[in-house]
Amino acid sequence: MSTALSAELTTPPLIGIYLKLTAVAFVWGGTFVAGHSLMQTLPPITAATARFFVAVILLIAWAYKTEGGLPKLTAQQLLVTFCLGATGVFLYNLCFFAALSTLPAGRTALLVSLNPITTALILGLLFGERLGITRWLGITLAFIGAAIIVTQGDLSGAAHDLSSAFGQGEIYMLCAVMSWATYTIIGRYALKGLSALVATTYAALWGLLLLTAAMLFNPPQINFAQLSWLSIGAIIYLGAFGTVICFVWYYQGVKAIGASRTVVFTNLVPVFGVLLAMLLLGEPILISMLLGGALVIGGVTLTNRSP
């Protein structure tokens, strides 16, 4: 058998990878609906803790199955993974669930799509990474789109009364976006010698520890009588599917087709988020959401191009 034919037979068809990445975007879009529903019965910190309790168990099991366990970390790696857990797990999820408790799921999904834009902007302004005209145009378009979404198309009204458009939920989302951008930059520049799975598992462990400590320090009020199988299902969905399975499939995509082609699929996340919010929660799709969302997605596409 020729080498080319052997490689063709042992390499999974790309259509399977594309379907998995589309499924990842769909599931991530669904996390906004699941999170919004969960906020009806649980406080944000409890929901975040429950999500990562499920995720950590599955991540550890996966690490032992594929890598034979979790390696002992150096002092520097412990510090870096702690920072990853503090930003990408602890702060991000607290803000994510807090925003979903006050904002519609569809609008939250659209605003979260600013993550890569914010990351690129920080890298350009603070780390001197070259952006170029095309990427600056993308950043500008995305932030104009976000402004249209937040103000529901009333930019002039918001200019006179910013508090009417930019409320508590939007502040939470801004903090979530900044937390994720910080998480991304730490992982990009400071993490060495660890696989993506091991780094993510340790970050999740640190994040779960911080969430648990915060709960013990200030115990939230939980009405267990309001908990339902739907709430439990939402926690499992967020922890198992939205965190672990999507992580596996996403990195299969990175390995098969490269990071630049894989990241394009994340543009589908806000699209699925808005559609699922409409179908499952009955949220309306406003013209401002369509226009703003199109600008954000277009801006993200431009920004993800090489400078």
TrEMBL record:
Keyword tRNA processing attributed: no
UniProt topology in membrane: Multi-pass membrane protein
Record's GO cellular component terms: membrane
Bilayer-crossing regions: 15-33, 45-64, 76-97, 109-127, 133-150, 171-191, 197-217, 229-251, 271-302
Residue ranges of every copy of the EamA domain listed in the record: 20-151, 169-304
SUPFAM superfamilies named in the record: Multidrug resistance efflux transporter EmrE
Pfam families hit by this protein: EamA (PF00892)
Keyword terms: Membrane, Transmembrane, Transmembrane helix
Localization: Membrane
Family: Belongs to the EamA transporter family.
Protein name as annotated: EamA domain-containing protein
